[in-house]
Amino acid sequence: MKLLVAALASELSAFPEELDGFDRLVTGPGKLQATYALTRALDADVYDEIVVVGTAGAIDPDLEATVHEVGTAFQHDVTDLDGVSGQHVSLPARVSTGREGVLIATGDHFVEDAEVTAVIRPSGAALVDMETYAYIWVAGQFDVPIRVFRAVSDQAEDGALTDWREAVARCSVQLRAFILTEYGV
């Protein structure tokens, strides 16, 4: 059995309620809710794989507005004791799915500001979201394989929240088609 994970129910709006071979988990937005919900799910049941779907803002302005697989994540909203941005005081700077894919910057606030995007861009991140780092880290703690797929919903700059609200349904359709192709269900 696999676990299909999304932060928000709206990101699964194009998915059927029941998906053969998958349980479903909606965690709520942000790193804390993602960590809590996924930890509880993995503590309660055994899964062969975690499959995360959801939206993300594009940090790379040339990134195509389609579905991208995430390979690595870091937290853009933390600093260590020396003030190094992106480095947590006790967690790894980056976590990996073990698969090829884009780098995503995870933080606990919705990025909709060109100045914040400009600060994140030099990291090499292609996308920004609010949960991926947490999902990958928790999966690693339970030694469960994880794949993360993010559909580009906005450009993570001025007006991004309005863009996201208008794009979430389109992104869910893209993610549903991708999962159908990738997993056959």
Structural description of this entry:
The protein is α/β, with parallel strands linked by helices and 185 residues long. The chain contains four helices and eight strands; from the N terminus they run ββαββββαβαβα. A five-stranded mixed β-barrel has the order 3-7-6-4-8. Strand 6, helix 2 (114-120) and strand 7 form a beta-alpha-beta unit. The radius of gyration is 15 Å and the shape is globular.
Uncertain segments are none
The computed structural class is alpha/beta
Widest sheet, order of strands: 3-7-6-4-8
Count of DSSP E strands? 8
* Major sheet size, sense and barrel closure: 5 strands, mixed, barrel
H/E element order: EEHEEEEHEHEH
- First-to-last CA distance: 13 Å
How much helicity do the residues have?
A: 25-40%
Topology:
Layout: E1 2-6, E2 22-26, H1 31-44, E3 49-58, E4 67-75, E5 94-96, E6 102-106, H2 114-120, E7 127-129, H3 132-142, E8 146-154, H4 160-183
List key phrases describing it.
185 residues, alpha/beta, 30% helix, 4 helices, 8 strands, five-stranded mixed β-barrel
Quickly describe the structure.
It is built from 4 helices and 8 strands.
